[in-house]
């Protein structure tokens, strides 16, 4: 009986931990982020590859293979949560096995500004 209780308790703890991780998808950080700042940072760091409207058609982006992500399509290879986007902005696509052409910006752009960029990128998706 005691071993069943211990097993049940362990299962409950893992379930609670899983729910906590699932809830931490970055939604709260994006809600707090400044969209105007995100647009400004996007123009400064991202537009040369992703283009002014996020179509993946920036002057440098036109020369890249694979081409940069088109944010208006809203299709993402490495997850469609704010946290997944934040991780790519922070650590680059190569951190997920993707193209090293998507550079890591974590050492350059402050955390709050990276969340703001994520908020801006999410806003570009066509409905």
Keywords:
mainly alpha; globular; 127 residues
SSE layout and pairing:
Blueprint lengths: L1 H22 L3 H6 L2 H11 L1 H4 L31 H10 L19 H14 L3
Helix pairs in contact: 3-6, 5-6
Would you give an account of this structure?
The protein starts with a helix and ends with a helix. The chain has 6 helices and no strands. It has 127 residues and is mostly helical.
What is the helix content?
40-55%
Mean pLDDT: 87
Largest sheet: none
* Structural classification: mainly alpha
Order of helices and strands: HHHHHH
> Number of helix segments?
6
Sum this structure up briefly.
By secondary structure, this protein is mainly alpha-helical. It contains six helices and no strands. The chain has helices at 2-23, 27-32, 35-45, 47-50, 82-91, 111-124.
């Amino acid at each position: 009986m005691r071993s069943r209780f211990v097993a049940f308790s362990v299962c409950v703890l893992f379930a609670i931990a899983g729910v906590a991780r699932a809830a931490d998808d970055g939604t709260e950080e994006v809600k707090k982020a400044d969209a105007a700042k995100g647009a400004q940072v996007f123009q400064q760091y991202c537009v040369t590859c992703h283009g002014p409207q996020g179509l993946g058609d920036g002057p440098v982006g036109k020369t890249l293979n694979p081409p940069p992500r088109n944010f208006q399509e809203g299709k993402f290879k490495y997850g469609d949560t704010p946290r997944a986007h934040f991780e790519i902005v922070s650590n680059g696509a190569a951190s997920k096995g993707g193209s090293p052409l998507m550079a890591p910006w974590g050492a350059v752009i402050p955390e709050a500004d990276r969340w703001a960029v994520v908020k801006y990128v999410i806003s570009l998706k066509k409905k």
